[in-house]
Amino acid sequence: MRQANRLLTVATPGRGLVEITAEAAAFVRASGIANGLLTAFCRHTSASLLIQENADPDVRHDLDAFFTRLSPDGQPGWRHDNEGADDMSAHIRTALTQTSIGIPLVDGRLVLGTWQGLFLWEHRDRPYRREVVLHLIGE
Amino acid sequence: MRQANRLLTVATPGRGLVEITAEAAAFVRASGIANGLLTAFCRHTSASLLIQENADPDVRHDLDAFFTRLSPDGQPGWRHDNEGADDMSAHIRTALTQTSIGIPLVDGRLVLGTWQGLFLWEHRDRPYRREVVLHLIGE
Amino acid sequence: MRQANRLLTVATPGRGLVEITAEAAAFVRASGIANGLLTAFCRHTSASLLIQENADPDVRHDLDAFFTRLSPDGQPGWRHDNEGADDMSAHIRTALTQTSIGIPLVDGRLVLGTWQGLFLWEHRDRPYRREVVLHLIGE
């Protein structure tokens, strides 16, 4: 049984989903591990992880529209607005999605379904450099 | 340290929660592993995983009612409606719940609480055959 | 490769976020494992886990305010209200957050970001004693 890990830096264009499936798959291949568990962990509280459809970009558009309606920026009553109107809504979007996702690896392939991609979801308006830790255990 | 994995196929009756705790426990028992980590992974973007109360079915009814009010089918403005009015709401429900859940295994038993069950949540109206990968590492 | 686990009991003051980062870090240090994967698992369906900002307590205030507006207690139409007006909303808050979170451990440190803390989120009004299982695998 072995382990591997890598710190992935993801440049985001502001609010939106950035696919990192290829980076995760490349890390898995380079590790030489064929069976095990990959864990992706996002080191932020205003960006998160999500597995969603990677075929039709309309899904990402509609997801963002839903979350914007669910948790609009700049709500009166919010106390935490140090960094602007999108600050607290970014925390809320993070709470409603994932900070950590585990994906089994079987016979050299992540078991993602046909339409599944792994995404970093930037919840802030401006571009950031985000850190995702990839950890793999197996053999 | 050893690993085991199994592809579980779950027939769903349309939208609703299908308990798979017994299937997960049977896989664990068959593996012969007594201490470790079970990961359940759902290979879809319109169905998801959830740990919830398995005692009172009213909980599942009210959960479904809440999500239906939160994200009604067939919203005007949605771009992604290729497969019908329940298509995009299924993606939203998936984003708000889990695709992957890890459950520790201690002394031969999953550490689920007294009232906890593991469920596949079908978010589409029609019945489907869904795939859940179970992965276990431990000894 | 080795494993360790611990049952953590968390006394909650009623609805609100209780940080358990220090307890998780202490468990990791005591294990002697330097690289691996920590899994925290909450054994309840009316309390959950969340990674959020541990710097400004206003974030926790606003998160709670958001969830209260999203899923108010005592909704007419709810069938599951055996234990009071906060019973079903506690299940909903649990479904929308996490029951299980995996955090990689690299060179003796959990890879939490600078502002990230691990929290148990009590969703019931009254104080409870909650159980969180910590599981660690690595070497």
Automatic annotation (TrEMBL), chains A, B, C:
Gene3D superfamilies: YjbQ-like (2.60.120.460)
Stored InterPro entries: UPF0047_YjbQ-like, YjbQ-like_sf
SUPFAM superfamilies: YjbQ-like
One Pfam family matching this protein: YjbQ
Homology family: Belongs to the UPF0047 family.
Name recorded for this polypeptide: Secondary thiamine-phosphate synthase enzyme
